[in-house]
Structures are given as structure tokens and as C-alpha cells.
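To close the chapter, one final illustration. This time we ask the reader to focus less on the individual chains and more on the assembly as a whole: which components sit near each other, and how the overall shape emerges from the parts.
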Amino acid sequence: MSSLRQRNYGEELERLLDRVQKPARYAGGEWNSIRKDWDETGVKVAFAFPDVYEVGMSHLGLQILYHTVNRRPDALMERVFAPWKDMEGLMRDHGLPLLTLESRRPVSDFDILAFTLQYEMSFTNILNMLDLAGIPLRSSARSPGHPLVIAGGPCAFNPEPLADFIDAFAIGEGEELINDIIDAYRAGRGRDRERLLRKLAGIGGVYVPAFYRVRYNDDGTVQSVKPVAEGIPERITKRLITGFDRSDFPVNPIVPNMGVVHDRIMLEVMRGCTRGCRFCQAGSIYRPVREKSPETLIDQAFRLVKNTGYDEISLVSLSSADYTGLKPLVKGLLDRVEGMGVGVSLPSLRADAFSVDLAREVQRVRRSSLTFAPEAGTQRLRDVINKGVTEKDLVEAVSAAFGAGWQAVKLYFMIGLPAETREDLDGIAGLARLVLKKGEEAGVGRGRLRVTVSVSSFVPKSHTPFQWEPMNTLEEIRDKQKYLKGLLKDKRVSFKWHDPEVSFLEGVLSRGDRRLSAALERAWRLGSRFDGWSECFDFKTWQKAFEETGTDPGWYAHRRYSHEDVLPWDHIDAGLSKAFLVREHRRAMSALPTPDCRGGKCPACGVCNGMGAKPEIIAGGGDGRAQVPDQIL
Amino acid sequence: MPRYRIRYSKEGAARFMSHLDLARTFERVLRRAGLPVTLSRGFNPHSRLAFGFPLPVGVAGLEEYVDMDLDRDISPAEIIRSINSAMPPGLKATGSCRLEERAPALMSEVERSTYLVRFDRGDAPDLETVRQCLERVMGLPEVPVARRKKDGPPVPFDIRPGILSLSAREEDGRMVVEMELMAGSSLNVRPGEVIQALGERCGIFGGNCRPEITRTGSRGRGGKELFGCCSGRVEKC
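The assembled structure is written out below.
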């Protein structure tokens, strides 16, 4: 090992860069990236995004945590992304370990390695990155010399499939939690790993899986997940930040040197969503809704433009059209930055005429089509999922869009939703035809009118009212896709669907338990990487991995749980009461919608009461939009 | 509208920026620098930058050029100072001058570029062998290499008319080949093609060698200086 230390990794990497696709992924040296003095800084954290650079650099959470850690004088954070297959091959051939972008140091030299879990299909990349870093895959095999491996993000709300690989999970929002973890690390470093982990387990929102024992029933379901030591909490409650308007936001984000997926300013106008769509995990785990004031946002946007030079500001959140201060914000932004050649964009539109009008006003870069997400084909099924959009809303929205000059409309739907019938599939085709008709009526030229119907497959997610519901089998999904294809033969309609096998695997992992770790590790050993990329995903490899580890994946994806069952993630507390989730599940089965809590009627989800928080909604919306049923993208 | 020509270098991490990335980066640099860049009219206004002949990804450039319009007169020294306050590592403005009203577009002016190709130790034979090879290739009436148009099949293309001069020397024990090649819209030869041709004709340079390539400068027709744009009023920083 000592001879390895003397190698100049930065120079070795440099030589490989001429041989890979998109070398800028690994080169670093971006504007606003921070390289601190290694020897002068106490705690070194490597932030690991288990996907390629272009995806990872489009993630706002990375920019927030990078800023949060690097503003501490006693800590530094550097970045590392999953190397694409060509680079991985060269690294393995040359014995080059995983390096961070900033200092090109081995990830194993850092104190803390922090993964973000955005998507189940990136799990094999986590194992691959650990292996490339020379860190034992399993937490139990690590020694004090290895970095502390932590992970946070939405998939940490069911951390169990990764429980054997991660030392500690950070549940909920990371802005304050990362500081608590670094503080605890500083106080506990040098002690043995067990004591450090114990200290971490005492922090609110930190889950150290090694301190919990899972027992199973004879039928394979979980009987209990209990702490095995004194002082370890029974349940781990998510962290959230309050006073969102005053929360620290990075106005000096890193500006990539290459094109990335979201290559623009991401201005977070609010966190959380009040819509209550019953399939949506983000809508559950980011509660309650918290808005920033237009004044704060305009000030941040102005500084962001000056510090980054971007020419586009995207108003990001789960449902930006619901943001109370949207009109004053857009007006204020355009007044302030339009003269600098900077435009504003709305990533999500509601299916209503208001949203289309706003899009028409602000969208400087005319995208060729507008997208709406009715999600289901009939009013009954939209009531089941609590998607408060009506056919009338959609008709008004697309009519406004065609009237304003758009010639193409995209419609997003889900198939395999609970309580779905053939009528609901017919409804999808019916809506597509209705939109075509509205396009003809609006006089969109022949040969120009296009409707794209994009259909994804429902995947049940933890902490949602549909967490107990089974996912459709592969055959059911394929049949439904085929059926829809037959209904959508119009040349002006293009039909797109998701790979059913990817959705199935997502369903297996999203409701998985600790026993899946064996299959996950085997799939990685058999070569699975970048499973979210169609050119890399190989379902046969996964099937082999399940077979060889004696795992029945269908048991996880297609199981219908009862409300009394212990769920593998029940010890993780997202703030939502089980009574609320059960109530919502029952209302869904009776096709009863639950109103948006912005309207003033509290559905008693439990987050505000249980966590001492409340919705932070700025004053002065008042254009009456809050009552308009809608949708988000 | 005053027009300016900026000379800059692109090295280190920045040499991996593609031409499109570079154009995007310059737009952002100029906005960060707060320079009054003239925006195009129309629905989607953006700064109008005219770059020289693109540098291949991975190749460093010591004297690269870009032309731009500003809304008002700013001293070349001030332009360099503000641009350099906003450049990412590896990019650096090294000169600026105001262009004459009817100065031709940069792209139409560039004709040739010089490159330094540095080989790793062990990747090149001794100096004498390399020199003999260069002479031999310069003496050939034509030097066809395989070129691919888009996804089509490789087609032979004669690069000999595009090779203006080749020389070799040793620096710190490393073989350095200097090339002057045509680099314009009418005829463009890439240094990689020359290395490939040398390797094939003389059986030197292994197929796996990745020499470090630097474009040291570019000139206009007949070797005309591109930075002598405004009658001696060149300012450097």
C-alpha cells in the first residue's frame, strides 16, 4: 500500500482522459468549484452521486450540501460521480482508484463518503463506486481506517435493501443534518467505529442499520425491526428545516464545463407539495409545503445570474405553478434580469389555462411542445389517485396552448394503478383523441398537429397511501401497453412507454428489505451497472442474480400488504401518521378525493402536529387559483 | 457597435471542453464579467461570438481567438481584466484589440495552425529516425488517410497538401514534433491524422500512444498575423 501512496493519481487520470468519451466528466476545474487546503481542514467529505456527471450536476441537493459543508472552516466537500463504463475499464486496467474531481485524491482518503440516493436503479453504481474506491462493500467488513459511508435522499426512506452496505443513513432534509453529522464525527474521530456509530445514532434523523435486528414471520414478511442496544431509538424521524424563506441557499453554485441535463439556474421557490397525489413519494416525504418570498427569490436570482452567468432561471419545486407568489415573482424577475439576456422558465405546468398563459408570457425559449400530466384516463381513476385534474381543465389547457401557437402536446399517464380497469385504458386513448380534436378546432396545420402519449408504469413507494398495493406483473404491463398501442394508431399520435422490466426492478427495490442485499451484490458482481440507462440495463443479469441468491423478486413487487402488516420501512418515520395513510388508502378505494391542504382544510396527515412544523405559505397570493384543480409534472 | 478580438489560451481542465461547451462557457464568462455584450435581436437574445477554427477535444491552445460585439467602447486592457476575473481554471485571456469596421470574420481569415506534439518517453524512436520519417513523408507526392463523413464508410483523403512543415526535436528526453498544418474552411488537417500517417508510413509510434498536443498559434492567408487587427493598437495583459 505504501508504494501506492506515492503515485501521482492526478497525472495518471490526466493520461486516461484522452481515451474516454466526454472527458470533461472527470476533468473538474469548473467555475465556483472549491478546493480547500487538505492539511488545514479538519473533516473531509466526499459527496458521491451514483450516476454520470451530467445527471449528478443537475441535482440541486448536491449544490446545497456542497455549499453547506464548504462554508464551514473546519470541513471540506469534494465531488465524485460514477465513471461511465469506458472510464471504469481504464481505471481497473491501470489500477487507478476512484478519485474526487477537486483534488483528484482517492475517495478512500476522505473521512466521510456521502452518497445521495435519488433512484433505485443507481444502487448497483453505489457498490461499484465503493469497490473502485477500495472500500469493503459491507459495512461490517470496514475498519477505522475506512471512510464512514453515509447515504441520504429520497430512497433513504426505505433504506433496507442498502442496509448492509451503508454505515449510517441520513433521513430527510440534509441542510442541518449534515452539520450535525460532521460535528459528531469531529467529536468522535479516533475512537473505534462502533462508538462513532453509536454517537451518530443519537442524532435525530440518523439511522445506523447495524444497530437494528430484523425478525421475519414464517410467511417471509417482517415481524419486527428493533434496536439491539440501549439508547438506540425505536424509530428514526426525518429531519426538516423550518423558516424556509431564511434558509441558506447557494448563490455561488458550480457551473459545469460541459452540457448537463439541467444547465441553468435552479431557483428553489418552495419545498414540498400540497396536492396529495396518492402515488407520489416526493409529495409525502417533503411535507409540509414551505414557500420562499418573492423578495428573497428575486435577490437570490439576481446574485445567481451575476455569479454563474447562466441565461436561464428555472423556477424549481415539486409544483411551481402552485407557488403563491408566482405572478409577482415572474414579473420581478423579468424586470430585473431580462435586460441581461436572461429568461425564466417553468419546469412544471398545471393543466389549466392560467399555466398556459403564464408559459406563453415567460417562456423565452419556445419549446416545441407543452406537457401535461393527467396521469389517468378517467375521472374515477383520477379520483382514486387524488389527481385533481378534470377533463374540462385539460381541454381548456390544450385549447389555450393550441390557441397560443403550440402545435404539439405531450400527455403523461400511468398504467397499472390500483383499481385500474380496461375503461381507464380506453380513457387514455379517448383523451388523446379529444386533444387531437381540440387541435383541429384551433386550426393547427395538417401534418403539424402532434400528440405524444407517454405511459409509465405505477410503482408502489414507501410512505405513500399506495405502499400496500401490489405492482402489476410484467405480463399485465405488457398486455396493457399492447392494448394501448392498438388504440393509438392515429399517425398524429406517438405512443411511448417505459421498459416494464426496469419498472419491475424499481418496484422490487423500492419495497425491499435487507434480504435483497445478496441479490444486489450478486447483480453487481455479474456486471450490472447504470441500470437506469437502457443501453446498459440487462434484465437477464438480474434474473440470474435473483436465481443464484434464492430471491423471489415477484414476492416484493406483487405483494399486497395488509394494513396490519409490519412494513420493512416502518421504523423510518416520514412524519405521516399510519392512520392518515390508511385513511387515504381507503378513500382511494372508494374514489374519494382529498382536498389540497392549501385550501385550509387540513387532512391531518400528521406531519405538522408530529414535527412541530406548519405549512409556510406566503401572504398575498389572492388570485383565486388555489381552488383550481390541477396537475404537476 | 465596436467589435473586439480576444486572444486566449485553453489548457489544463479546460482543454477537455468541446467547442460547443466553450461557446457556452464564453457567454457565461462575459455575463459574469459584466461586459456590455451586444445581444442578438429576436425572441431569444444571446451574445454573438465568432470563434476561430475549433480545437479538438483534449488539445490545448495557447493562442486562440474569438470576436465579439460590445454596446460601447471599452479599453482592451479593461476587457482582458474583467474577462480574466470570470474565467474558469484553464482559460485565460492574453490579448485584446478593437477590430476595424470592415474586418473580415475570424473564421474566413484563419488558414493555418502550428501544433506541438509531445510524446511520452518510450512512445517515439530516436530523433534521427523520426527526422528521417518526417523527411520521407514530406517527400511523398500524396499521403492518403482514411476519413469518415458522418456515419459513412472511410474514404481516402490526401492530407499532403495540408502539411506545410514538420520538424522534430527532443525536450527533457521527450520527443517533440512541431507541425504547421492547414486549418481553415477550405482545407483542414488534424495533427492526429499526421501522427497516424507518420506511424503507418515509417512503422513508428505505437497505435496506443496518446501524445500531448498543443496548438501554439494560428495565422491567416499566407501566414498573416491574426492579431495585427487594429494597426498596432494591440494591448496585452
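The helical segments of chain B are 19-33, 76-84, 106-109, 127-139, 191-202. Residues 120-210 of chain B form one domain. With these observations in hand, you are ready for the problems at the end of the chapter.
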